[in-house]
Amino acid sequence: MNSPTQDTDNATARHRTVGLLLTLGGAGLFSCKAIVIKLAYQDFDVSSIVLLGLRMAFALPFFLTIGYLKRARTRDQQPLSPRDIGIVVLLGLFGYYLASYLDFLGLRYLSAGMERLILFSYPTMVLLLQRGIFGIPIKPVQWVATVICYLGIGLAFSGSDFTIGDNFSLGAGLILLSALLYSFYVIGSGRFTVRVGSIRFTSLALVAASVGVLAHVLLSGNSLLGLPAGLYAYGLVMAVFCTVIPGYMVTEGIRRIGASDAAILGAVGPVATILLEYFVLGEYLNVVQGVGAALVIFGVVLIGRSK
Fold it and tell me: How many CA atoms lie less than 13 Å away from 175 in the CB half-sphere?
């Protein structure tokens, strides 16, 4: 028979393993969004803000329903204070909606490859912010894994355009601000989900983000009505499989393994996008990109094996 200490260690290991799998699975599903968007662009003449609006319009009822059901089943759970609600709503608006929109704006001035390199500075931001604000120490394995994953992303996008245009400073600033805002969302997820639960946090934060996106669509003069049926199908797929399901998976993963490790594991996302482009869209994949993907996987394995 195992001793109580061994049972505790085994339970902790299982808890962390589930968190790792949820985070990786969620990052992989999030990466499918780019594939669905490319397919939608091939089939329809549609703007990015309309696609984003469709995605969040279809996702909003799911977030509301799941949040309501969770609330009905946990009436004995400590209710959220007005301060908690306000912070989670702000995290959803700024860390999810505004971060995504700034990333979209930055892409007007930067190549996709340069955008990926700048945006994925956010794991380092998460490590430094948690160290500076909360005094959470940065483990050597986290630094090593971050460097390896970042190098892997650079190689994976080696075929991209890295030229610096006239508006590089503006574009880079927008992308860096997007990364910073998303870093706060990841950190907020790690701190709030332990206390309020991952489902309540995700539901409230992403309801706020959805409302922000839909308000943006209306203010921009676009409409989500009268569109082709196939476009609605793409929006529904993005909502369910690239937003709702991975949204809850990643938040629960952050609750289990912490914001720092989860941020590093997010490096799987862009690599998964490249692999999906190769298998689904038939795009070219060279040896250097394969080496980059292998480095990212190696960095992820380092985090997975750490305690």
Answer: 22
For residues 4 and 288, is the Cβ–Cβ distance under 8 A?
Answer: no
Mean pLDDT for 86-110 is: 89
pLDDT of residue 307: 63
The pLDDT-based confidence of 4 (bands split at 50, 70, 90) is low
Please measure the distance between the N-terminal and C-terminal CA atoms of the chain and give it in whole angstroms.
24
CB-facing half-sphere around the CA of 238: CA atoms within 13 A = 23
The model scores a pTM over 0.85: yes
- Give the Cα separation of 67 and 268 in Å (integer): 28
178-221 tens-digit pLDDT: 999 999 999 999 999 888 889 999 999 999 999 999 999 999 99
Write out the two tokens for 194: 């332990």
Non-local (6+) Cβ contacts of 139 within 8 A are: 306
Q: CA–CA distance from 66 to each of 189, 199, 288 (Å)?
A: 18, 8, 43
Q: Position of tokens 């934060």?
A: 205
CA proximity to 63, closest of 251, 216, 293, 225: 251
Residue type, 291: V
Q: Distance of CA 61 to CAs 29, 65, 66, 240, Å?
A: 20, 6, 8, 11
CA triple 205-38-267, angle to 5 deg: 55
